[in-house]
Amino acid sequence: MTPLIEVRGLRKVYTRTHWWRKRPPFLALDNVDLAIQSGQTMALVGESGSGKTTLAMCLVGLEPPDAGEIWFEGKNLLAPGADKEAKVGSEIQLVFQDSAGALNPRMSAAQIIEEPLLICRRGSSKERSELVLEMMGQVGLSPKWKDRLPHQFSGGQRQRLAIARALVLKPKLVILDEALTGLDLSIQGQIMNLLLDLQELEGLSYLYISHNLELAAQVAHEMGVIYQGRIVERASPSEFFSHPHHPHTQALLASMPLRASMPLGLTYSAHGGG
Amino acid sequence: MEGVRSNPASNAQHQSPHRPENLLEVRDLSVRFRVNDGQEFTVLDRISFDIGPGEVVGLLGESGSGKTTLALSLLHLLPPAARLAGGSVAFGGRDLLLLNEKQLREVRGAEISLVYQDSSVLNPVIKVGDQVTEVVRAHHSWTRQRAREEAQAAFAAVGLGGSDRIYTSYPHQLSGGQRQRVMIAQALVCKPALMIADEPTASLDTTIAAEIVNLIKQLKDSSDTSFLFITHDVAALARVADRVMVMYAGQIIEDGPVQDVFSQPQHPYTRALLECAPHYPSTGVARDRAHRLACIPGSPPDPTAPPPGCSFSERCKDRMELCDARNPQEFRSSPSRSVRCFKYGAGQS
Amino acid sequence: MRYLGLRLLQSVFVLLGVSLLSFVFVELAPGNFFDEIRLNPRISSSTVTNLRKQYGMDQPLPARYFRWLESAAKGELGFSFAYNAPVGPLLWARARNTLLLTGSATLLAWLIALPLGILSAARPRGWINQASELFTTALLAVPDLLLALGLLFLAVHFHWFHAGGMFSRESAEQGSWVLSKDLAAHMVLPVTVLVLGSLPILLRHTRAAMLEVLDSPYVRASRALGISRGRILFRHALPAAINPLVSLFGFSLGSLLSASLLTEVVMSWPGLGPLLLEAVLARDIYVVIGAVLFSTLLLVFGTLLADVLLFAADPRIRTEGLA
């Protein structure tokens, strides 16, 4: 089955000059390959500096890669022909970690959700307002709050807002770049459940990028590890935990005894509850 | 103990025995915030706890629970909009809340120090080594050479020793983990009796966070320093804390030895929170998509409009009628544990 | 070093451009220097024509420009029709006077603004801040010209200081001590005007920069570590707040020649200002171009200096962060 999105040999180099000195170029992405099927979630685990955010930027079109191909629904996104951008742009959306930074502090919730529709010129004014209210309902925000400003929402609510904005154009692939990091534990569960529900409802695919292994493992159909710009391991979640191959993966798992030191009793029996 | 505001009524509510060797004794600490239109709301509601020497006490709570306010109020560092509404903080024979600015300055950084979560607390235009010596020289009138030596010792203690390069770097030249270590060095260079760490691992990668937690464990084992470790990272507390207190909506709702609280949580919030903590059994269970993640529905109460009864009752699975009517008091369920829940205590007012 | 080289090259281009533009603008202005002479019936038109030829004014613009460029490259900035003297030395004598005035004024203004700004920021509710806020608002509202005229009026009315000019006739033959005292006395008024004119902006910027830094997490953390307020203010906050002030300093350096034009004219200070004004009115082209060029040179130098200072002062710019 052709994957929804397939990345082959993606490469991105950053050249840096500091005033007059030239620095050695920084290889952010080194021959990255990955594929995500429709309706499935791929989790990409990596630490800061591993290139995960660069990858997200390239996929969404915010950064031009230096080499490689991105095939989306059978079309090569990097082939010359700029108008594809406008159409495909709406099919792949990105949710950032720091929603407070990603939301315009002067726009109300409704305006934020409506903005992508305005940019892509979808629907009449009436249709747009209806869609906005529908989205707010879907992500669990009360329609009463449509005129509130971002700083009047809590962190979890802002993240819901960012998700609503990402989904309003009915994309096929949503990239979540550390979207749950920094939220309270109880809220993380809420948002993740929301994402899972939406995935079932709309057949979305997710690329879930994080440095948090466990959360990633709980929602992924496939797991990958990105390290120094390369994807060094790719496996199903159970394989991943039982037979890690790459030393970096093993190192990541080794930092998990922090988790394993949790007393068993209560927690495992409640796995999946609530 | 001189300096503790003796108030028989309040002492009766906090039932833990007064141990003379306690390093820190907080009794009925309350803080209120003023909003723009003159209204006030409670951020900390009669907080009481003790910390003994060499003890690592964890403070578990989510955003809005008041944990950061608690840390700031211990050192009297609250923003102008906050007001101390009562209570006492007994430390070294004095009530910290009664000290003037000059006396407080002697305490801060030298006897009690604070480590923040965000490394933007490092001055971007001063070398990190100098930032540590600044702390030393603020509290001791030693020579510059001596101060430098102390700073370098502190750097070595946090694992940044061995090269001058880091000592003479600026914050933006260091990684997140290194910056966090610098902050810890700043906090312990004057060998304080108590270190308050406010979410020290929140913004770090998992492996780096693990290293920092190990560092704290190391510091705890090698010295007599006590820690108040504020976090929402359950696993970190399991690894390093002796006792844990759980905060919700400005109150301490559970308190006890960490192993006991985590394996048999008494308060429904603690129980629910522990369920949410991510965990993946090392035996690799295949993900079952029918099951959703554990979470606590709803959100904490609006502090400007607190419910009349228990603040958690709205979201509580074991909610009873009594819970909506009155706020539960601390109930001592065992000599070392206490919990604020009507399930355990008959309704004391 | 390559960066500096690039900036210098840029500066040369700027100067060239400015000279060209000045030439063109003066040309575009109606009339020329000889019109006035022509009006005089006793001077024959052939004399005028000859004069024009002598000064090369009958040549087309590009030719004249290139001739000027040629001689400028050799250090000769042209000839002043009105003064009948080469432009260079004329400008320099006047520029010295201006620099004396504006240099002192700038120094004084910064010396006042910096501590005042820091103190205002340290105690936002104190009387220093309230007073300076009132003061700066009032000053900002008053145009320089009005200020100059007002002070002049007061000086004449109350016989304070000397209302205008640079030296008194009496002190011409005296020794240098008397001369300096006289100079200083004459400088008081114009310097006051200049200082009052630039103080509000400097003060506000200093205060704003300090306020922002004082509110930052790292300053609050310093308090938590028990460091004294005084030390925090000068050792922690000020270095971090210095950036916008360095840029401002470079800019004030750069405008040393241009800032005082109005004041000099009103107070009859023999600086570059009145010279420029005269020259523009009389279409004394080469003086105009020379003066503008001088000013531009200083501006370019000022901004370059600001960048270099910024580089030296802020380690975030000087050193690299992690990739």
Description:
The complex is a heterotrimer of chains A (274), B (349) and C (323). Chain A starts with a strand and ends in a 5-residue tail after the last helix. Chain A has twelve helices and ten strands. Chain A folds into two domains: 1-91 and 172-274, Rossmann fold, CATH 3.40.50; 98-170, no CATH class. Chain A is an alpha/beta fold and 274 residues long. In chain A, the strands form two sheets. Chain A has a six-stranded mixed sheet with strand order 6-7-8-3-9-10, sandwiched between helices. In chain A, strands 2-1-4-5 form a four-stranded antiparallel sheet, covered by helices on one side. With 349 residues, chain B is an alpha/beta fold. The longest helix of chain B is centred in the middle third of the chain and has 17 residues, at 206-222. Chain B is globular. With 323 residues, chain C is an all-alpha fold. Chain C has a domain at 100-282: MetI-like fold (Orthogonal Bundle). Chain C has 14 helices and two strands, in the order ααααββαααααααααα. Chain C has helices at residues 2-28, 34-39, 45-54, 61-73, 87-122, 127-141, 144-158, 176-214, 217-224, 229-254, 261-267, 272-282, 285-313, 315-318, and strands spanning 79-80, 85-86. In chain C, α6 packs across α8. Chain C is globular and about 85 Å long. The model of chain C has no long low-confidence stretch (mean pLDDT 81). The A-C interface holds A 14, 16, 18-20, 23, 26, 49 and C 1-3, 311, 320, 323.
Short description:
Chain A is α/β, with parallel strands linked by helices and 274 residues long. Chain A has two domains: 1-91 and 172-274, 3-Layer(aba) Sandwich (Rossmann fold), CATH 3.40.50.300; 98-170, no CATH class. Chain A has helices at 52-60, 83-89, 99-102, 109-119, 125-138, 155-167, 185-202, 213-219, 237-242, 247-254, 257-260, 264-269; strands spanning 5-18, 21-36, 41-45, 67-72, 75-76, 92-95, 173-177, 205-210, 222-227, 230-235.
